């Protein structure tokens, strides 16, 4: 009996230590910022035909005006946690091949050469600031991938009249749900500080929502994206790629973007 009690106590201490460690280190699991000096960022931007996007307080991200003007509207891109603003130039390429849209790419605090620390609060504040900088005389759409889908849903649910439509690549109901799937033995809802509750924000939105899910996604389970889609009661469109991995769409990507833009604009 004494040995059994000692074993249970040891297991409880180990479990508590794991919980504390996960709570302390959780942001290092959520955010994977790539940090470069400004000269390197400028070189990458120039190579990808991106321009610095700034306000009076400093950098917001990057922009690429539509080659065809006047543009039909604007797209704000909020990327996944392992990417960067300059790394999203390929999205601008694909979008502008199919439509005359100005593209704006948000840079997260703590990524590339933008000062700050990546947290849910800071990403949301940066996204709200970016949205305020985009002209409102034409429709504004938001495209979010992975972690950026949580930022996109925040914008849609908070600035409902500013966002004409969103498209989400490998989205989730919340980061908490992703963590609970990955660590089913932990009380993730009690430990998680940055939640990104996409499902809650979309309850406030009634515009067009497109969602793309991948059957072989080992980072964000397909079922979470499907749950987000099924629970949304506004106009919506679903892309399913059974053999796709995380944030993957079938090639050529221009087919996806033709469908996405048509969904937004029609």
Annotation keywords:
alpha/beta; globular; 266 residues; 8 strands; 10 helices; eight-stranded mixed sheet; Rossmann fold; 18% strand
Structure commentary:
With 266 residues, this protein is of the alpha/beta class. The protein has one domain (31-265): 3-Layer(aba) Sandwich (Rossmann fold). It contains ten helices and eight strands.
Number of strands: 8
Q: Tell me, what's the shape?
A: globular
The chain-level structural class is: alpha/beta
Order of helices and strands: HHEEEHEHEHEHHHEHEH
| Mean pLDDT over all positions | 92
Strand portion: 15-25%
Low-confidence stretches: none
Strand order of the largest sheet: 1-2-4-3-5-6-7-8
Quote the CATH topology. Answer: Rossmann fold
The number of distinct structural domains comes to 1
The protein's oligomeric status is single chain
Helix content: 40-55%
Give the CA-CA distance, first to last residue.
71 Å
Query: What is the count of DSSP helices, taking H or I runs of 4+ residues?
Result: 10
Q: Which radius of gyration do the C-alpha atoms yield?
A: 20 Å
Q: Determine and state the CATH class.
A: Alpha Beta
How would the blueprint of this fold be written?
Elements lengths: L1 H29 L7 H10 L3 E5 L2 E7 L8 E6 L10 H10 L2 E6 L13 H14 L6 E6 L1 H12 L6 E5 L5 H8 L5 H4 L6 H5 L5 E7 L7 H10 L4 E6 L11 H13 L1
Quick structural overview:
The protein is an alpha/beta fold and 266 residues long. It contains ten helices and eight strands. It has helices at residues 2-30, 38-47, 89-98, 120-133, 147-158, 175-182, 188-191, 198-202, 222-231, 253-265; strands at 51-55, 58-64, 73-78, 101-106, 140-145, 165-169, 208-214, 236-241.
